[in-house]
Amino acid sequence: MLQTFDQRNKELQIYINGELFHRDEAGISPFDSVVQGGDGVWEGLRLYDGRIFKLEEHLHRLRNSAKALAFIDIPSNEEFITAITKTLAANNMKDGVHIRLTLTRGKKITSGMDPRLNQSGNTLIVLAEFKSPVYDTNGLTLASSSIRRFTPDTLDPKIHHCNLIQSILAKIEATAAGADDALMLDSRGFIAETNATHLFFVKDGYVCTPRAIACPEGITRQTVIDLIHEHNIDLRIKDCSQAELYRADECFCTGTMGELACVTMVDGRTIGNGTIGPMTKRLTKLFKELVSKSGTKVVE
Predict the structure, then answer these.
(1) 22: which DSSP letter?
(2) Strand arrangement, sheet containing 19-22
(3) φ, ψ of residue 31 in degrees (nearest 5)
(4) Of 167, 163, 238, which Cα lies nearest the Cα of 208?
(5) What's the topology of domain 140-293?
(6) Which of 284, 264, 280, 241 is nearest to 179 (CA)?
(7) What tens-digit pLDDT sequence spans the chain (300 residues)?
(8) How far is it, in rounded angstroms, from Cα 111 to Cα 160?
(9) 256: alpha, beta or left, given left = phi > 0 and alpha = psi -120 to 50?
(10) For residues 266 and 183, is the Cβ–Cβ distance under 8 A?
C-alpha cells in the first residue's frame, strides 16, 4: 500500500503563521523546534461536504498535548478554526480533504533542546490535501514489528507529538515483510495498535479492542466505540494478545486518514475467511452515516 500523488494538490497553498505559501515555497526555519527535535504536536482532520468531523475533539486533544509539553500561548480554538478556514478557502476545498494541523514550540534563538531558547512564539502549520481514505478496504495485511510502543512510564502516548520515529521504524519492517502496515505491541507483549491506526477484532459476535495504554486516545477509535455502545453490540476493551487476533473472525483498523478498513491477514495467518466481515461492514456503514450528517461547518 503506497499513497499516490493527486494532481489536484499540485498548486496547494499552505498556511504558516498567518500567511499562505505555494507548496514549492512553503518552509519553516531550521531553528524551529520541530526540525531541531520533533518538538511539536499535530492532528489529522477530515473534511466532509464543508464540515470537519469531530473538530472540537481533535482541537481538544491538540491543546492537551501542547499543555503536556508545556507550550506557552497556545492558540485558541477560534484561532485554529480561522487558520483552517483560510487554508481551505485558498485551495477551494469542500470535500474529500485531509488536513494535517501542526503546532510547534516555534523558532529558537540558537540550536539546542532547552525550551527557554524559544522566544518567538509557536509555529502553526495547516496542510490541507485532496485525499480520499488511504487504505484498500478489500483487506490489509499486517506484520508484527520488533519496535514496541512506549508506555506512560517512558513516554506518555496521550501526548500526540511529532516524533514518529517508532512508527517509521515499524513501517520499514512491515514493508520489508511485504505487509501493508505493522502490528505494534506494548512493553508487556500485548497489542497496542498498528504503526498508524487503532485495531479492533471480532470473535463470536463480540468486538474487542486493546486498552489505550500504549497508544493515543484515538478520535475515530472512540467514535467506533460510541457507535458500538449506541447499537448494543457486545464490546470488550482489554489486554489483547497476538494469538487472540490470529483466531479472530474479523479484524479492522480505524483512523482519520483511512476511516475503517478491514484486515484480512496478520503474520501470515488469514483472519476469518479472508474477506471483509459482517460486523466490519455494519460498523463501516454506521460510521459513514454519522460523518455524512455531523461535523463543524467551516466552508460553504
Answers:
(1) E
(2) 19-22, 13-16, 123-130, 97-104, 40-48, 51-52, 296-297
(3) -90, 0
(4) 238
(5) D-amino Acid Aminotransferase; Chain A, domain 2 (3.20.10)
(6) 264
(7) 788 999 999 999 999 999 999 999 999 999 999 999 999 999 999 999 999 999 999 999 999 999 999 999 999 999 999 999 999 999 999 999 999 999 999 999 999 999 999 999 999 999 999 999 999 878 999 999 999 999 999 999 999 999 999 999 999 999 999 999 999 999 999 999 999 999 999 999 999 999 999 999 999 999 999 999 999 999 999 999 999 999 999 999 999 999 999 999 999 999 999 999 999 999 999 999 999 999 999 998
(8) 23
(9) alpha
(10) yes
Neighbours of 244 (CB within 10 A): 15
* Joined grid coordinates for residue 47: 473534511
Q: Does domain 10-130 correspond to CATH entry 3.40.50.1000?
A: no
Pairwise CA distance, residues 55 & 149, whole Å: 26
- Indicate the pairing of strand 250-255 with strand 40-48: unpaired
When computed from its CA atoms, the radius of gyration of the chain, rounded to whole angstroms, is 19
Q: Please tell me the pTM assigned to this model.
A: 0.95
- As annotated, the residues of the chain forming the CATH 3.20.10.10 domain(s) are 140-293
Angle between helices 77-90 and 55-68 (to 10 degrees): 120
